[in-house]
Amino acid sequence: MIHNETMNAVPLTYHLRGRFWIESPQGTFLGQGRVALLERIREHGSISAAARSIQMSYRQAWELVNSMNTHSDTPLVSSATGGKGGGGASLTETGEKAIALYHAVYADFDDFLAKRSESLTL
């Protein structure tokens, strides 16, 4: 077996990668996929259109929205049933705050991974 030391004079560098999610006592509250769904609901004004835009079934999207709404003191998404004027969905103020919170924590997490990666050696 040939060791890297004999093949290269340059030592290997390592980088940390990771994912995180925010949990409530009932389970997962926010993660990358849920935030993407919220952002698409904001963009499209509809759970079904948001789901289609990220190749997710309507049922799965609705279940995720329902889960996020029940894991929060106030709903993240407000929806209206269809009919003559059509239905729709929009983010509440809490939904907007949840997206901002996730992105702020993600930035801190990403900074931690980058800084900690600088000192990874074997």
Automatic annotation (TrEMBL):
UniProt cross-references to InterPro entries, sorted A to Z: LysR_HTH_N, Molybdate_resp_trans_reg, WH-like_DNA-bd_sf, WH_DNA-bd_sf
Signal peptide: none
Pfam families listed in its UniProt record: HTH_1
HTH lysR-type domain segment(s): 36-96
SUPFAM superfamilies referenced in this protein's UniProt entry, alphabetically: Winged helix' DNA-binding domain
Stretches that traverse the bilayer: none
Protein name, per record: LysR family transcriptional regulator
Species for this entry: Thiothrix subterranea
